[in-house]
Amino acid sequence: MILKRLKINTWIGDATNCYIVFDNESKETMVVDPAGDVDKIVEMINILGGKLKYIFLTHCHGDHIGGVPELKKELGGKVLIHREDADGLNNTNVNLTEIVDEFPNIELEADSRLNDGDLIHLGEMEFKVIHTPGHTKGSISLYLASEKLVFTGDTLFRGTWGRTDLPTSSFTQIIESITNKLMILPEDTIVYPGHRKIYNDWKRKTNLFRIKTGKILKQ
Ligand SMILES: [Zn+2]
Ligand SMILES: [Zn+2]
C-alpha cells in the first residue's frame, strides 16, 4: 500500500488533509476528502498509475468536498458518504458553502450511502466504516486493521476534537464517538485526521481523562 497526504488550503483556517490510498497489486485507488487542488491529486494518482475506485468523504463539509465534482469528472470514482450526511452534500447550509462568501456553493450527489460497519475493499485491503457522529450527524471514521490506521475526519485531532457548534453537530455525541468507538482501537493505531498532524501517540489515558472532563481547550 502507498499512502500519500496532500495538504489543501481552503476558505477555512487549517489546511485540509487529503489522503490518497493506493493498492500496489490491483492499482485500485481511493481518495479521502478531496478538498481542492484537483490537478495535484490527479497528478499524484497518474504518477502512481492508479485507478480511482472510491472518493471517500468523512463528512459533508465544504472544506472536505470542494474538489469532488472536478475529480469525479476527471477520473471517475464512486462518491461514498454516510447516509446521514448524504443530504448535506446538496444542502449548502449544512455543508457550509452557503455561509462562506468566498466559496462557491457545492451541491453533490452520493453514489453510495454508507452505514456503520460497512466494509470497503481496495484490492486485498479491507476498510471498516465506523460511524462517529458529533461533528456532523453522519461523520465517519475509516479503519484499516491490517495497517493499524484510522482516518478520523474532523472527529478526532491530536489531543482535541472537531467543532460541535455547526448544523447537525452534537457535543455529547462526539465525546461518545471518541470514547466508545475510537479510543477502543489498538494503542499503536496511527491516526490520520482531517486537519493538522498525523500521529500515533494516543496518550490514551491523558486524552481520555481530558476529554471526559472537558479540559482540552480548543486551539
Ligand atoms: Zn468539518
Ligand atoms: Zn474540516
Strand/helix succession: EEEHEHHEHEEEEEEEHEH
CATH class placement? Alpha Beta
Structural shape: globular
CATH level-four homologous superfamily name? Ribonuclease Z/Hydroxyacylglutathione hydrolase-like
Structure ligands: zinc ion
Strand proportion, as a percent range, falls in: 25-35%
- Main β-sheet: number of strands, strand sense, barrel status? 6 strands, mixed
- Count of DSSP-assigned helices: 6
Nearest-integer average pLDDT: 91
Tell me the layout of helices and strands.
Elements: E1 2-8, E2 16-22, E3 28-32, H1 38-48, E4 51-56, H2 62-65, H3 68-75, E5 78-82, H4 83-86, E6 112-114, E7 119-122, E8 125-131, E9 140-144, E10 149-153, E11 156-157, E12 160-161, H5 171-182, E13 190-193, H6 204-213
Parallel strand pairs: 3-4, 4-5, 5-6, 10-13
Antiparallel strand pairs: 1-2, 2-3, 7-8, 8-9, 9-10, 11-12
Helix pairs in contact: 1-3
The structure holds zinc ion (2 copies).
How would you sum up this structure, described in words?
With 219 residues, the chain is of the alpha/beta class. It has a single domain, classed as 4-Layer Sandwich (Metallo-beta-lactamase, Chain A), CATH 3.60.15.10. Helix content is 22%, strand content 28%. The protein has helices spanning 38-48, 62-65, 68-75, 83-86, 171-182, 204-213, and strands at residues 2-8, 16-22, 28-32, 51-56, 78-82, 112-114, 119-122, 125-131, 140-144, 149-153, 156-157, 160-161, 190-193. A six-stranded mixed sheet has the order 1-2-3-4-5-6. The protein has a five-stranded mixed sheet with strand order 7-8-9-10-13, with no helix packed on it. Helix 1 runs parallel beside helix 3. It is globular. Residues 16, 61, 63-64, 154, 194-195 line the site of one zinc ion (ZN).
